[in-house]
Design brief:
heterodimer, A: about 300 residues, mainly beta, Immunoglobulin-like, five-stranded mixed beta sheet, five-stranded antiparallel beta sheet, B: mainly alpha, TRAPPC13_M (chain A), TRAPPC13_N (chain A), DUF974 domain-containing protein (chain A), TRAPPC13 (chain A), TPR-like protein (chain B)
């Protein structure tokens, strides 16, 4: 099993060099097998991709992806042959177990015989929604056929085994909200509320907020008071970044729709306004998504 | 270039050199007693040896740099009003330099072919990419009597630190770089020209290493800004057009070093903001900016930057990958002019869509062609870990294949995930 976070860019801090005429001149590129012009020697990043070095941290809200590989490790001249390989996987989360859909490239057919040294690779994806311990359980079954010397099949049996991979999902964003009614709002226009939100980045890396939205109940409409506030002239660098432990404050104005449907009020007299949804990207474009529970007004 | 010291005069500067650090600032941890403090007998006893080796050393070309004002100033000792020559013997103490073991190397790289004896001439070691031996050799030359001339001290010190970073001994290099202390101290200014006597490349290197060595992440960013201030001043005052150009180039380089330093300390948003301010907005600069945005995950900004680059840009597939669309990225990569790097990125994409067999075939194909850059061996090792129980064995075989490539420098265990 290998986790499939996005591949990373090669990173190498450029070595300042003396003039080429100097006897102390070093050609680090030749030693590192980089041909002239292949890489940018003055910049730390290079467009050469590397696979994720390790599992890394798993965060709530992230789209978790990993690849599973079944390999035939039998020696090439073995009399046993492996076929009908089936891989099944499920994710055990603190609240229950869900089966996972396995994707594979379209060219493979599941009944194909797995020759010695060959591998079957599958990819699974799972949205991490809960904090805490997760276990990826992988069941593998295959038919093992023993061939006699004259290549006539003699005996076969089905074998199965199970592998477990455990990891912990940690929170990436902490969301604190505060709902207040806008004072002096004209009662004929309906009620107005201000939603203030503090987002704290609890992850180890910087995240870029892609979109934040307050999805209201039908009785209300919301206006973002943030960076995406109707400014078509700003096209880029407009998404805020949040460094680890940084807190970003955002706000929404929620207004009752005139002639809209009636408000939904809970048993204890709170009005349900809507819920907040946040989309972000972390390093190299890995995505995350989070939505809060229903936010309500204070009890009257 | 090699000009031996006159043998009669060689004792005089030595006596002078004992007047240590009168004008040097901020030098803690000085030895209060040392071999130089001992009475005359030692000084006179060591004299003949020094003479003998000095003449011998004079036959070896001394690495010099454009900054070599100190060499000539050592000769006219007779003038009594002359300031005493600066004493750099604090760089010659063996305890500064860490011994290097071969144990961190994969066994195939421990052979004499890759680790020739440090007695081999330094330029040979450098041109053959024997950086580990070169690091040891430069430390040995620094610590063995007679003390090398000033410019050679700095050149050797640079070689030592540069080689350590090249063999992945960054912590050692960072620790050893502290021996120079404050590289902007007036002590390092030439008495007549008032310019810093340390080679430029050494100053750039030491700024980064000291930042790491003192665990002060932002120190390197400030250090480059300080050099930029100096470069700006010299551009203004310099009367020599060649020198003005040199300092302009250096100032431009420093702009990129600041970005590199910000990225190294993990502040990619600051690096992006800094790169946005640089001019001219050449395709090279825009590519660097786009890569920074992609690494940061600010993909809309990356897209915007890429749209002002000529298409098809080799960076477009990278953006597609960041968006998670590997099949499209594969199509885009195949449309680019073929190169080894495109092939290696293609192999990475194939891995993400579940075609590990093809991926291995491409990567191994590159190794068969004699390629061995870090990303290639690292990725192949990662795939081996996944798709064979004998991953370690396969990685070991890979080390052997890379080691046999002609002219290849040493590789560490990290290159093969060993």
């Amino acid at each position: 099993m290998t986790r499939l976070s996005r591949p990373a860019l090669s990173q190498r801090f450029p070595l300042p060099l003396p003039p080429k005429s100097s006897t102390a001149y070093i050609n680090p590129n030749a030693a590192l097998d980089l041909k002239p012009g292949e890489t940018d020697d003055e910049f730390i990043f290079n467009p050469v991709l590397t696979l994720p070095p390790a599992f890394g941290s798993a965060y709530v809200g992230e789209s978790f992806s990993c690849t599973l590989c079944a390999n035939n490790e039998l020696p090439g001249d073995a009399e046993r042959h492996v076929s009908s390989v089936r891989i099944e996987a499920e994710m055990q989360t603190p609240s229950g177990t869900s089966p996972l859909e396995l994707r594979q490239s379209e060219e493979e057919s599941p009944s194909l015989q797995l020759k010695s040294g060959e591998s079957i690779q599958k990819i699974v994806q799972f949205d991490l929604r809960e904090e805490g311990s997760h276990t990826l359980a992988v069941n593998l079954s295959y038919s093992e056929t023993t061939m006699s010397k004259d290549l006539s099949a003699s005996s076969g049996r089905v074998r199965t085994f199970r592998k477990l991979y455990q990891f912990v999902a940690r929170p990436c964003l902490s969301v604190r909200t505060k709902v207040s009614s806008v004072p002096n709002a004209n009662t004929e226009d309906g009620q107005k509320f201000l939603i203030e939100v503090q987002l704290e980045n609890l992850a180890d890396g910087t995240i870029i907020l892609k979109a934040v939205a307050f999805n209201t109940k039908p009785a209300f409409k919301s206006t973002s008071l943030n960076w995406d506030l109707a400014r078509p002239d700003v096209q880029h660098s407009s998404c805020p970044s949040v460094a680890p432990r940084d807190v970003l404050q955002i706000a929404f104005l929620v207004e009752q729709r005139i002639d809209g449907p009636s408000k939904e009020v809970t048993k204890d007299g709170r009005t349900t306004l809507g819920q907040l949804s946040i989309q972000w990207r972390s390093s190299m474009g890995d995505t995350g998504f989070l939505s809060t529970g229903w936010l309500t007004t204070k009890r009257k | 270039m090699a000009s031996p010291l006159p043998s009669e005069g060689s004792s005089a500067p030595k006596r002078h050199s004992r007047n240590i650090s009168i004008n040097r600032t901020s030098m803690p941890r000085r030895l209060t007693k040392g071999p130089l403090e001992v009475e005359d007998p030692l000084a006179t006893a060591s004299q003949p040896t020094q003479e003998a080796v000095t003449t011998e050393a004079s036959e070896v070309p001394i690495p010099t740099t454009p900054f070599s004002p100190e060499r000539s100033s050592a000769v006219p000792v007779a003038a009594p009003t002359q300031l005493p020559p600066k004493d750099f013997s604090y760089l010659l103490r063996p305890e500064i330099y860490h011994p290097l073991s071969h144990l961190d190397l994969p066994p195939p790289f421990r052979t004499p072919v890759h680790q020739p004896p440090p007695s081999t001439p330094l330029p040979t070691l450098l041109s053959n990419h024997n950086f580990r031996s070169a690091a040891t050799a430069s430390a040995l030359r620094l610590c063995a009597p007679p003390p090398p001339p000033t410019t050679e001290i700095f050149s050797l010190f640079y070689t030592r630190l540069a080689c350590l970073t090249l063999i992945n001994h960054l912590p050692f290099a960072a620790e050893e770089s502290k021996a120079l202390q404050d590289i902007n101290s007036p002590f390092y200014l030439d008495d007549t020209t008032k310019q810093n006597i340390l080679p430029w490349e050494l100053r750039i290197l030491v700024i980064r290493l000291q930042g790491i060595g003192y665990s002060d992440e932002k120190r390197s960013v400030g250090g480059y800004y300080e050099l930029a201030r100096e470069a700006r001043a010299l551009i203004k005052t310099s009367t020599n057009p060649e020198e003005t150009e040199l300092w302009k180039t250096r100032l431009k380089d420093l702009g990129i070093y600041v970005a590199n330093a910000l990225i190294e300390i993990g502040d990619l948003p600051a690096a992006a903001r800094h790169l946005e301010t640089l001019t001219p907005r050449s395709p090279t600069l825009l590519s660097r900016l786009a890569l920074t945005y992609i690494a940061l995950g600010d993909l809309s900004a990356a897209q915007h930057t890429l749209s002002s680059l000529p298409s098809p840009s080799p960076l477009t597939p990278l953006l597609t990958i960041s968006l998670g669309n590997y099949p499209l990225a594969i199509t885009e990569l195949r449309a680019l002019p073929p190169s080894d790097l495109v092939t290696q990125n293609l192999a990475v994409c194939l891995f993400y869509i579940g075609r590990v067999d093809e991926s291995v075939k491409l990567l191994e194909g590159l190794v068969d062609q004699g390629r061995s850059f870090h990303a290639l061996t690292f990725n192949l090792a990662t795939v081996f870990e996944l798709c064979c129980e004998r991953g370690r064995e396969r990685k070991g075989e890979l080390v052997g294949r890379v080691e046999r490539v002609r002219g290849v420098g040493e590789r560490g265990g990290g290159d093969f995930k060993l």
